[in-house]
Amino acid sequence: MRAAVVNTPESTPVCADFPDPEQRPGQAPLRLVGAGLHHVVRGLASGRHYGSGQAYPLVPGIDAVARTGDGRLVYTGFARSPWGTMAEWLVTPFEVDLPAGADPLAVAAGMNPALAGWMPLITRRREAGELGTVLVLGATGMSGGLAVRAALSLGAKQVIAAGRDHEALERLRGLGAVTVPLAAPDAAAPGAGATGTGAAALAAAVAEAPPALVLDFVWGSVAEAAFAALGQAGTNGDNPAIGYVQIGSLAGNDAALPAALLRSRRIRISGSGAGSVSKAEMIAELPEIIARFGDGTFDAPYTAYPLSRVGEAWAHQGHTRAVVVPD
């Protein structure tokens, strides 16, 4: 079959022949409709992601929209290595039907980023019975923007959206979020730490509406600014307990955590991602997420690339997500 093939950790994928996926009981082959090129896909293929470790050559891709033998459109993923989802044929362990009206390529582009924020939100609501105020750091990226929409749709008391893209912040404001502009990390003066990230605006927003849940898609200096803002409440025991969930690290892999914050606030810091959330838990939530793509609550802008141009897809940047489709 034709597939995107990564031959070494440093190489860009090429379109080439690759063996058909191994047949498995109860898993009929599916024909590719579109596979999203997410940040995690690049990380896994290059060996930089903590979940890497595959042998080469391999087919990249963790999820896709595909067509079944009887013509249904389904969302699927978790193909067995070295087969990924950027190939003409897929063999995968689950299928979730797409609702009428859902754009299959928007689903391919958006399901993985939507799932990133959805899991900690739904976990928090089940544990606490409500979401309270939610702070989203990195809200202007695709994952963060979908997390803002998810929090609003799940009944958050208020959503504070912090991010760098002013146009995206205006769109989130239009949905009902309180928005906080953040500066690019390199805009801070050398040695300034969190002060160059928009810390003052973030501190003001947090003081006005203390969050019960923080979804952090960026980490690094932005997390340090958030820690400083959360710590300004002092020892007031009336402030809500905080669940701080680390999801992404686009602003840096490390962040300094003040000891005083841990002592002065009821805060629990955890992570959410492959390994800390089981596949079964994620699959169980997929129908609810897909339904929101069907009714227009969620959307994901995309740029489609045929398999023969997978190298261009790999280099794609901008506000849309690359989606690999058959030629």
From TrEMBL:
GO terms for molecular function: oxidoreductase activity. It comes from the Bacteria. This is NADPH:quinone reductase-like Zn-dependent oxidoreductase.
